[in-house]
Design a protein that fits this description.
6-stranded antiparallel beta sheet, 21 strands, Elongation Factor Tu (Ef-tu), domain 3, alpha+beta, 5 helices, 4 domains, elongated, conserved putative lor/sdh protein from methanococcus maripaludis s2 fold
Length: 364
């Protein structure tokens, strides 16, 4: 019995000795077997807490924003009657194209033409009288008062001609700019009153789409930012455009700002009033990004564990966005640094770690 107790005590003592001096025995083992001794750093690393690490990446916090907007013509007016009268000529038709100044509608103008002819005749007579008295004035044979009266008659006659021409011009409706007319609300022979609505008239060379943007995204939008648009009116097509205007204020009730985008319509496929689905790629700042598993919540804040000189170091961060298994964070991290992904439950500040994938750290 005494011998068995003594043998057991000896075995326990040898086991304790071996545990205490395990590093020295590990260093002597290669000497006995002829294998090269491990380096000191490898020995220390093997004794640390085993973990898996990944490299910090740098990602831009870009966002994709979608909204529904309404299309508007680049320029759009409602054509109205310039005067009262009977329509004698009507060129307006759905989809008809006109250049600036083209005649769209004519009213009966017999009286105005006669008035112009009469005014021109009176101007001719007043011009002759003025010229005759001017010649006599130079010779001293005509009184100054009569010459001034002739000069006044000439000016009045000239004004009457200009007025008659303006009255005649008002019997015609002309295109205000290059554009396309809509459905006419009148026909030849109709009698209309001044300012009666005739038809719509649009410049469809570009379509303007207005939509609301949340105020939190205003800092990401600028004039010239590219947009992509789709409309049910043209299935299967996507149209490129750009932001051309941003409203100067935020609507207090909705906390949004009005944004206007312009889309080229050279093919004349798009129509004002149609609904558009607008998509914008909003550029953001660059931030560090780590695997989602690396993020921990500790003492009311988020943190990750960084490998620093073979030890674990906690780093406080703020969550910016989650994206495809990655988390974009804001914190003192540098691209390429090693962040512990697995084994974080056993970590504490300054503890030695054994990065199991150190020979080829995982790159996300």
């Amino acid at each position: 019995m005494v011998r068995q107790v003594g043998l057991s005590a000896l075995m326990i003592a040898l086991a304790v000795f071996g545990w205490v001096h395990r590093d020295d025995l590990r260093a002597l083992l290669p000497v006995a077997t002829g294998a090269p001794a491990p380096e000191a750093s490898q020995t220390r690393q093997a004794t640390g807490t085993p973990v898996i690490a990944a490299r910090v990446r740098t990602l831009r916090d870009d966002l994709e924003f979608s909204a529904i907007g309404t299309g508007l013509a680049l320029r759009s007016v409602t054509l109205r009657a310039p005067a009262s009268g009977e329509i004698t000529d009507l060129a307006i038709a759905p989809g008809a194209r006109f250049g600036a100044g083209d005649v769209l509608l004519r009213l009966r103008d017999t009286d105005e033409r006669l008035a112009l002819a009469l005014a021109e005749a009176r101007l001719a007579r007043a011009t002759s009288e003025r010229n005759r008295y001017r010649a006599l004035q130079d010779t001293g044979a005509a009184a100054t008062a009569r010459f001034e009266e002739a000069e006044t008659d000439f000016k009045v006659a000239r004004i009457a001609v200009e007025q008659a021409r303006a009255d005649l011009e008002e019997r015609s409706l002309r295109a205000p700019f290059d554009g396309v007319s809509g459905l006419a609300r009148v026909e030849v022979g109709d009698r209309i009153a001044v300012d009666d609505a005739i038809a719509s008239y649009d410049d469809r060379s570009r379509i303007l789409v207005e939509f609301d943007l949340p105020e939190a995204l205003l800092g990401r939008v600028r004039i010239g930012l590219e947009v992509s648009a789709q409309t049910p009116a043209v299935e299967g097509r996507s149209f490129d455009g750009e932001v051309v205007a941003i409203d100067s204020r935020v609507e207090a009730a909705t906390r949004t700002a009005r944004v206007r985008a312009a889309i080229d319509n050279a093919g004349d496929l798009l129509r004002p009033g149609a609904s558009f689905s607008i998509r914008l790629d909003l550029p953001g700042k660059s931030y560090p990004a780590v695997p989602e598993l690396a993020l921990q919540f500790s003492r009311g804040a988020l943190q990750v564990w960084r490998v620093s000189d073979g030890t674990a170091e906690p780093v406080r961060v703020e969550l910016v966005r989650r994206r495809d298994g990655q988390v974009i964070v804001d914190g003192p991290l540098t691209e390429g640094e090693r962040i512990i992904v697995e084994g974080t439950q056993r970590l504490r500040p300054g503890i030695a770690v054994n990065v199991l994938n150190d020979a080829g750290a995982v790159r996300s």
